[in-house]
Amino acid sequence: MSKILITSALPYINGVKHLGNLAGSMLPADVYARAMRLMGHEVLYICATDEHGTPAELAAQAVDMDVAKYCAQMHDAQKQAGAQFKLTFDYFGRSSAPSNHALTQHFAHILEENGLIEERVSQQVYSKADGRFLPDRYVEGTCPNCDFEKARGDQCDNCGKLLDPIDLIYPYSAVSGSKDVEVRDTNHLYLKQSAMADDLRKWVNAAQGWPPLATSIALKWLDEGLRDRAITRDLKWGIPVTNKDGSPRDGFDGKVFYVWFDAPIEYIAATQDWASETGGDWESWWRTDKGADDVQYVQFMGKDNVAFHALSFPTTIIGSGEPWKLVDQIKAFNWVTWYGGKFSTSEKRGVFMDQALDIAPSDYWRWHLIANAPEGNDAAFTWEEFQASVNSDLANVLGNFVNRITKYCVGKFDGKVPDGGQAGEAEAWLITELQTRIPQLISFYEAREFRKAMAETRAIWAAGNEYLTQAAPWTHYKTDVDQAAIGVRYGLNLVTLFGILAQPIIPDAAEKILGAMNIPELNRTWNFGDADGIASLVDALPIGLEISAPEVLFTKIEDTDIAEWSQRFGGGES
RNA sequence: GGUGGGGUAGCUCAGCUGGUUAGAGCGCAGGACUCAUAAUCCUGAGGUCGUGAGUUCAAGUCUCACUCUCACUACCA
Questions:
Q1: How high is the mean pLDDT of chain A?
Q2: What is the pLDDT of residue A365?
Q3: How many Å does it take to go from CA A372 to C1' B69?
Q4: Nearest CA to the C1' of B74 belongs to which residue?
């Protein structure tokens, strides 16, 4: 047994997340956390909302709300959406929490003492009408390259050229439309990532168990030459910049820390909050001098977050010179794409977590999204694929298997696990199948290879159907009830095994299956043991145990549903 | 523009350090079975692995060029 710390990239506060966010960090992290718990590891799964920054302020402003209230409301909405998707966070915190304020200040002070933070002056566009500095992409104007009139300050959407907002012709504020904008000097704190580049490169090169995506992005940034990064912004909403005694820092009035500085620190702060709520020991997860040296720390995130987790946050951690736990494995995902493009909150493209649950249960989404996780590539979401996953994998292969054998047992064997029968070829085949597939399944989970783990899970379910075809208890029943009994008994044991294996992925269905089979909690873990242990799984249920046939586990998705959803969500348009 | 991915059966994707007839699921065709959610099981058809050249006894796998596509490009997060 080992200690496994799991964090999922913090979902940003400005709205309920879409399925791409779910599929690319929170869901796989949850599946992994659940599987590791079942294997007997001590798991702590931490997540939180990322609440600071310009988009939060503007989103609150758009609905005429105080930003703190807006964030509190959205935090609750996201927490609820997570709970409805059965995400088993041990703690779901907030980056605006007092603990994170304190810890962020701590890191800033110690990094400055260590010479890794310095003040520099840069130029930024200020909008008088809005009374605020504008991040580059909130300045629009005419592109100096192609004359496109709505070019963003960071990049022109028309010609694709990278821009500096200062170069825009006729610049205006994208927030208010005001043309009363000017360039002003502004001082900021910079994190000297460049000073850490050699250490980071050594660390990245030595990293084990990262997908190529994570390593290649990290090395790309290092190869291009790691630049120092501003870690403060001209904003009101955020963690203010203070001196060590808590007094305001000179010249940093109206400035706060950049979200990407404080958000990863929230992983630690949320653990502190978890500890104070539960009586847990946060230091044993984060301080290598207090027991965290044997923690395995895995971070889940989309590819856009890799640079921050593989370079910036480690700069904070290593640069502090304090014994903080550094991430061991970064599991990075590509995007789920939506009919050729990205899911987009602003353009309302795609399906959002709350809407998804209006049209299908969480199990359906969990299975489809994890079985088609964007691991190696961007993964295309289509309604047809979703329908096929649910109908074929869940309803036909798993659901129907559970249904056919439990109903048969109820009908012919009084709903009790029957005794009798001789194990033969079919049983031997089944055992061999499980002896090769279950260890493979475990190793896919341990390696966080989710698509492969799901394919293996499906193959195990299919093996159940194949076994029943070979054993054909309904044929034997006519001449030899005992021989029918063994097929039914093994089938029921398989139902139980399938339920146990399904727990991390489709927890609701797993619960229904294991409940119908009357399996106590204690017997639902993943302690399969060696080959003999696996062989014993097929005949583990006590003879005479009463079982019931669960209600239909998965309702099929009809073509008419697909047509309706495509219409409603705009998918399937060409 | 620069950098990094990717382009493999109708669809969604596997193919590790180059090595016999390129794989899976879905879909499709045929057959079997009848316990079951018209479910399941078996068999089969389908690919000159983006294009062109090169290295090699041997290339989906390595090199170069080209092409298409996605992402990143540091003040969106």
A1: 92
A2: 96
A3: 20
A4: A229
